[in-house]
Amino acid sequence: MTLNNDALNVLYGNNSQSLFDIMEEGEELARSFIEQMDAYYASPLSSFQDNIIARKFYQQKINHIKIVPYPIDGRVTFGASGTNKCDREIFFKNAKVKVEKTPDIPFRGRQRRVGSAVIEYLQLDIAHMEKRLGKDAIFTFATTGNGDYAIEDAMQVRQVIEHNGVKFAITVKPDGILNYANDPTRRFIFEYKTKASGVVEMNGKLDFGGAQADHLRQVTAEAIVYGINEGFIVYESMHKPSWFSDEERKSVPKTRKTWHNGKPLPDFRAMYFYITDEMKTALLDDLARQAELVYNGEIPVMNVEMTSKCGFCPFKSHCKSTLTNAELTHLIEVEKTMASSNMAGKRDHTNLRNYLAEGV
Questions:
Q1: What is the pTM of this model?
Q2: Is residue 150 within 8 Å of residue 177, measured between CB atoms?
Q3: Where are the beta strands (DSSP E) in the chain?
Q4: Distance between CA atoms of 124 and 203, rounded to whole angstroms?
Q5: Mean pLDDT over residues 107-127, rounded?
Q6: C-alpha Rg value of the chain to the nearest Å
Q7: pLDDT-derived band of residue 44, with 50, 70 and 90 as boundaries?
Q8: Phi, psi of 249, rounded to the nearest 5 degrees
Q9: Which of 163, 180, 301, 358 suits 8 as a labelling partner, its CA being 20 to 30 A distant?
Q10: Phi, psi dihedral angles at 278 (to 5 degrees)
């Protein structure tokens, strides 16, 4: 594998700790990260930008507003954040099928806008932390060889990989690469996700299942390219706890209260991850399989699992138009079986039912 010079400046070597020890330490690292973030936002100084830092940050953004086309090498290319797409979407994308552009529900457009805006402000805040917090800022952005913050476009790499005899490319540009003051040899991948479902729902899901599987696939792709195996997937709820405690408010149902034991529910969570060799191999196996399907020129067979990923697919109508009678019959039969079982009404059944209800 080859990396650009800027990316090479922020790599680190693997350590030999056991996975158990790594994850135990990781929980402590995540707490330290949150403590740093909380200390910054609790400070009155967080409301004021330093002109020198802000100018450097926005000048870097301006410098990277340009079109850099991928090399025309015929390789199937996977974006790190798109490594969870279904086989058929990958196939249609690489077959140059025209993307479907249809109107959406307005709030979704506003939600996407909020997510894009907030990550920029968060990155600017992290750029300020060393000045605002001094030695208490143990996590700071790494910098590239030319002094850029190690974020997004400044760290973009397209890496061609050969795995299981199949060549394909992975493109990565993380939300950030972090230095760690307590151990200058370590670097952390930083990915940030906004949640609009609510602070109660966000905490419930993270407490029950941890980081989302598709987000873990994203950072696994980044770990493959950068050689950095650990980091944080940070979740922030766009719905904040009540300004003052709502614990005693009778008008707020118990399931909707945003304070507990005199404290607001966390609106900002850092989930530590460590990417193992097994996780990398599993992802590469999957990407190599998908790339081979593209190279063979055969539309992948539709299955029930794929219907869970149709909500964001830009080829939905085209996909349905290519279904065979056998595929459609199979989906209808599975839906009938689910409807009369304990799967009725659950997410997998709902996704399949909605897929069929939209027409083929």
A1: 0.90
A2: yes
A3: 77-79, 139-141, 157-163, 166-172, 176-180, 187-195, 230-237, 259-260, 263-264, 268-274
A4: 25
A5: 95
A6: 22
A7: very high
A8: -75, 115
A9: 163
A10: -65, -40
